Amino acid sequence: GENVEQHPSTLSVQEGDSAVIKCTYSDSASNYFPWYKQELGKGPQLIIDIRSNVGEKKDQRIAVTLNKTAKHFSLHITETQPEDSAVYFCAASMVPMNTGFQKLVFGTGTRLLVSP
Amino acid sequence: GAGVSQTPSNKVTEKGKYVELRCDPISGHTALYWYRQSLGQGPEFLIYFQGTGAADDSGLPNDRFFAVRPEGSVSTLKIQRTERGDSAVYLCASSSRGGREAVNEQFFGPGTRLTVL
Prior knowledge:
Strand content of chain A: over 45%
Largest sheet of chain B: 7 strands, mixed
Number of strands of chain B: 11
Order of helices and strands of chain B: EEEEEEEEEEE
Helix content of chain B: under 10%
Oligomer: heterodimer
């Protein structure tokens, strides 16, 4: 089955700096790679996702890159703000066509702390 | 609008007891997922419903765990003979059905924190 590894486990940056979180996956059949942000006491919230037919996707200060050959994908946050502080999870899934069923396999999470 | 809700928010029980955890998905969402999140870990898939049927229950750890969704909306996760190792946050997520090549966002609830003493 799929296995997702995530690094680093903790990341401390100064406000305004960039933050990068990296994940690797094992199953070459995986074709969907979402990133979730989880704040204390809340459920994960999708912040960005990428399909395997795309190498990069950007949404304002957040971008994700995917290298299918190396089986790794990364989250990039620019101009970090204190409210970006949270735990971030990557995930991978093979999503069959016509169903949308996502059996997500999550990484172990990265605790991001942005200091003012 | 209303998101996914889960009740109770916290549940403390004794080893060997039976518990039920409830999930109210977003109205109109046909897909419903249960995950378990242990401390310091990512969510772990348990079961997926499309409508009333469990389309994939391969993540349920053993036969003490069971889930139902009788009317295709509210779902209940049932755990029999609870063990201390069952302590975790149980998360529910819902999404609308994906169309061809569509991958629809999973919206997560806040979870139920289960503590087995």
